[in-house]
Every structure is written in structure tokens, then in C-alpha cells.
Amino acid sequence: MLPEIHAVLGLLEGGFSRLKVLVVGDLMLDRYILGEVDRISPEAPVPVLRHAHRFSRAGGAANVAMNLAGLGCQPLLAGFWGDDAERRELEAFLDAAKIDRSAVVTTSLPTISKTRIVGRRQQLLRLDIESRDKPGAADLKRLRELVEPMVGRVNAVVLSDYAKGALTAEVCEAVIRAARKAGVPVLADPKSPDFGKYSGATMVCPNLSELSAATGIASHELEALLVAGESQRTEHELKYLTVTMSERGIRVLSEGSSFHSPARAREVADVSGAGDTVIATLAAGLAGGLQVETAAELANLAAGIVVGKVGTVPIEQPELIAALTPSSGVSGGEKVLGRERLGKRVAEWRAAGETIVFTNGCFDLLHVGHVTLLEDCHRFGSKLVLGLNTDASVQRLKGPSRPVVGENERARVMSALAAVDAVVLFDEDTPLELIREIRPDVLVKGGDYNVETVVGHEDVIAAGGRVEIVPTVEGFSTTNIVRKLTGKQG
User: Which active-site residues does the annotation give?
Assistant: First the structure.
């Protein structure tokens, strides 16, 4: 299970929204043309792509900002673009994600774009549109004038370097100096083989090829390469050197220690933009106060999600929360939620395509009938929310001698069951208001009911959901257990 899971979920469920992260670097527009290849051209020995569809995405530093927005942070973006159609297309993505682009400078150079032509998930060709010229001195001066005052107003800075001219040594030095003065972590995704450009940064995040270029050690000589990486970290006064190693995961080097996070990839469809996801998640995690090991684990998980998709696709909160909250993988305490936090988690589950199931009860003195009911409930969907009557509610329903077990203890016990994904207390006599807040896809009740007698059935059905009735296990009830314990068997 992920370290600091409580803190991580707290950040994903609202904490990241308080954090501002500045991204400085090379902006790009990524375009994709997808289709099928089933013949070779008679005109030349090249494949013929039968066009199926096309789409565009924010790329480069803009994709880092999109990932931060997907995590819930407030990204600020700085860099260059041209006055052209590509800029306007990229602008639309940024505006839709509510990314502050006030520090993006318009130059006479074209907006950088990359067009990937893909047939059956195999990239056939990439067409890059960019100038061989770099931004001029006046444009670089303007970028620095816009960026330096921003550094002290954010929680982290990312230098997204694609070697296209935005991040000169002078710009990097100015940003890092301002960040260190303000006590703000600064992370660099390097393309330069000279890591001296990023001296004094909190973290530099090369992949194996980039670290190989910086050290002169072949990428397949992993242990020697990591030793050389540690020398680079020390030489350039970096707190961390974080090496992304594809299917081998992530290695974080720091003074006197080395932390390895194994890869969490699913089926790999496209690695485009995975590095952007990693550095965005690392920056958000450090800005949110996570330990570097936790931030690395979270970044690994996020990268594993995005590489399963075609194209440059940013990570989204619901995907991470769904991945972090499987029934069997989250400690019980993380499943007991207040109503506001439950609402956020349910919304995130639903956005990730999960089917929400709801049931309720007192669940006093857990027995086999309860466990069977909950296991039956979970079969109707992918996430089970259990509404639990508070002590006051139980007393009104069952008398002053009940419950035998207090509400907090009951909630903790129920949350430990693998079938249960969330537990929430409600003080009303019925769960009607709770059902209206959650809007479950499936409402389940155990016992001698029919659909029309289940509280909340009208709301659930009207919203397109359904109601399921499951039988109880004969002979098992809390009342019978209490009778046995008190010797009052009747």
C-alpha cells in the first residue's frame, strides 16, 4: 500500500486545490493521426495509412501543466509560442483546464508542434514543425521578468526542458536562485547533457538515456550509471536525483540513501508524455508536503495509468483515487468518511467509470448474516458504500439498550471488511437524504422487502439506477446474539 495514504487521499480529495505550481519550459502542441495500414504504396515502398480519426493534445511544458490541473493544483505556465493556428489550439486546451498562461510570451517563431502518424498503435512517422532559430534575447528577458516575481507566490516550480530554447542556462539559474531564496522546491526535467544548468535545484528527473548522456555511462550498465548519477547529484548540489527507468520503475538518489519504486504499469499503449506526468506528480507531492518516497510512488502509479492510453494524456484525480482505493488495498480507517468527503470520493469513482452500490443498517455485533449481505451487495457493482446508523439513530429505532457496540467502533469494524469501500454515519431515522446525496447506481436491501418498500427506491430509479433485494441468512441476527448473551432465549 502507498505510504502516507491518508495524506495522499487528503491531497487528491481537495488538498491539491490550494497549491500553485509554476511550470517554465518549452510549450508544444501534440497532434495525432490514427488509422489502419493494410497495403504498401505502388508509388514508393511506404505504408498507406487509411485515415480513421485525428486529435490534438497539449504537449511539452503545457502537458506538465495539464497534469497538474488534472491532479487538482493551480498551474501557472511560462514559455513561448507563436501567433498562429497552433497557438490558438493550444490556448483552448489551457483555457479549458483553467491554467494561468499570463507568463507565456508570444514570439515571431512558430508554435512548436509534433504530429504523430499512427497505424494500429504503431507510430509510422512524426512530423515536427519548429524553427531552427531560438528565442531572441529580448524574448528571454521578457520571460525572466514575468517568471521571477511569480516564484515567491507558488508552492513549487517545474523546469520542463525539451531543449527548444526556453530554458537557457541564464533562465534556469535565475529561476532556481529565486526559488531557493523563497524556500520553494524546484524540479527539472532535463534534456541538456550538462546538469550544471540545473545546479541548486531540489530535484532533477532524468530518464536512463538522459542520465547516460550526462555521465557517459551506457544505459544498460544500470548500477554503474546510478553510481555516476549520485556523483552528478553531489557535484551539482541537488537534493534528489530521480531516475525514471521505464519498466524498472523509479530510483530516487539522495544523500546517504537510495529509494526504488517498482513500475506500476498496466498494458502499455503509448509512453508519450509519461515523463510529464511523473514530474508533475512529483512536484505536486513535494508541494503538498509528502515525503519524497511517497511522491515517487504516487508518480509511478500515475505514469502506469497514462501509458495505458494512446496519445499524450494527463493524469486525472478520479483515476488515481480509484487506483488507490480498491477494496483489498486500503486500510479500514481510510474507508470511514464524513459526508462531504464521501461525496467527493463517490464523484471521483463515478468519473473513473465505477458502479456505486449502497446499502445501510445498524450492523451491531457483526455476524455471518451481515457479511453475507455485504458480499452480495458488492457483486452488484465495483464500489460499495455502507450507510451506518449513529448510536442516537439506533436507540430511536431499537430502544435505549442498543447499540451494544458504539458507532465509531462499528464503523471501524465494518470498514475492515474487503467487500466495503466506504463507511459513512447518518443520524436520521432513514438513509433517504444520504441516498439522495450519493445517487447510487444500485440500492440494495436485505430482508423481507419488495422494491416499493425500500427507502429511496423512487430517487434511485428516477436517476436511472436499480434496486436489488437479497435474502437474509436465516437464524442470524444481533437480537438473537443479545438474547444468547443475556440468557433470554425465547
Answer: 276
Q: How confident is the model over 197-240, as pLDDT tens digits?
A: 999 999 999 999 999 999 999 999 999 999 999 999 999 999 99
Average pLDDT over residues 380-398: 93
* pTM given for the model: 0.72
Topology (CATH level 3) of domain 5-324? UDP-N-acetylmuramoyl-L-alanine:D-glutamate ligase (3.40.1190)
CATH number for domain 332-486, candidates 2.70.150.10, 3.40.50.620, 3.40.50.1980, 3.90.550.10 = 3.40.50.620
- Tens of pLDDT along 442-480? 999 987 788 989 999 999 999 999 999 988 755 445 555
Domain boundary assignment for the chain:
5-324, 332-486
3-state secondary structure the chain: CCCCHHHHHHHHCCHHHHCEEEEEECEEEEEEEEEEEEEECCCCCCEEEEEEEEEEEEEEHHHHHHHHHHHCCEEEEEEEECCCHHHHHHHHHHHHCCCEEEEEEECCCCCCEEEEEEECCEEEEEEEECCCCCCCHHHHHHHHHHHHHHHCCCCEEEEECCCCCCCCHHHHHHHHHHHHHHCCCEEEECCCCCHHHHCCCCEECCEHHHHHHHHCCCCCCHHHHHHHHHHHHHHCCCCEEEEECHHHCEEEEECCEEEEECCCCCCCCCCCCHHHHHHHHHHHHHHCCCCHHHHHHHHHHHHHHHCCCCCCCCCCHHHHHHHHCCCCCCCHHHHECCHHHHHHHHHHHHHCCCCEEEEEECCCCCCHHHHHHHHHHHCCCCEEEEEEECHHHHHHHHCCCCCCCCHHHHHHHHHCCCCCCEEEEECCCCCHHHHHHHCCCEEEEECCCCHHHCCCHHHHHHCCCEEEEECCCCCCCHHHHHHHHHCCCC
